[in-house]
Amino acid sequence: MSKPQPWLVTGAAGMLGQDLVAVLTGRVGRPVTATTRAELDLTDPTAVRAAVAGHAVVINAAAWTDVDGAESREAEATAINGDGVANLAQACAETGARLLHVSTDYVFPGNATRPYPEDAPTAPVNAYGRSKLAGEVAVAKLLPDTGYVVRTAWLYGAHGPNFVATMLRLAAEREQLDVVDDQLGQPTWSYALAGRLVELGEAALAGTAPAGTYHGTASGQTTWYGLAREVFAVSGLDPDRIRPTTSDRYQRPASRPAYSVLGHGRWSAAGMAPLPHWRVMLAEALPLSGPPAPWKVA
Fold it and tell me: How close are the terminal C-alpha atoms of the chain, in Å?
């Protein structure tokens, strides 16, 4: 029996990247090359080509993620989220590797009233969304048969700053918290998403998952206020310490979509069910977040 071909994970030091490496090395036992931003410059085509060589699947978890910073530095954000992704896609086209590229709900305008299907028209409302859309376009153009775009949103996990971690940190510092209740989305556990990405990569290698766009978010929907209350409830804290407020109380450089709920119809084509309900994910995630997970309250 031949040895399984290695996988490449970019952005391996990030929240999702660390979970991807953990799933690949622990759960499924695949050989992995894990590269951090310091180790692989996606804007360098030569370096990208060398990194991709010899790998069967590339999962791109590297990105410019400073949403507000992108408003004043859009060219820099696009160099990573757009041009860098194009470099990866070109390298994969040359070697035959499958590319799984992680994108975002921010490619949509956020003015819908029903979940966005995978083929809904895109219309980003901020520079970050435009930069991520450029990456999606590159994957579709360069890898029509072997490229996969997986949009996600509202990620939280054990490795890195996120909303869940912030809520439990603030719970130890303040008696009451004001949280916006006018933005809808799907809180998604990064470890669960990592597992789904690996499953999709395996299906891509097996030829059972058609190339294209998938939505990697939890089922169900809630607001940031609803999520904060559930975080407190699951953690044994009083959810009534959370008070609802509106987005206009928090002015930021970049506009945020008010509606970030994504549809999951495409998974059936790959023979997979959508990710679980966000409450199920959260209940599973929080008990696993013992020290030194960043959201654990002493």
Answer: 49
Cα-based angle 62, 155, 231 (whole degrees, multiple of 5): 155
Catalytic residue (one of 128, 191, 214, 225): 128
Burial 3-16 (b: 16+ CB within 10 A, else e): eeeebbbbbbbbbb
- Angle (CA) 22-23-29 rounded to 5° is 100
Residue 250 vs residues 31, 245, 246, 255: alpha-carbon distances, Å: 44, 10, 8, 11
Cα 28 → chain centroid:
20
**Domain 7-162+187-219+262-276 sits in which CATH superfamily?**
NAD(P)-binding Rossmann-like Domain (3.40.50.720)
User: For residue 171, is pLDDT > 70?
Assistant: yes
The pTM of this model reads 0.94
225 annotated active-site: no
Domain locations in the chain as residue ranges: 7-162+187-219+262-276
Amino acid at 254: A
pLDDT-derived band at 153, boundaries 50, 70, 90: very high
CA distance 53 to 32: 13
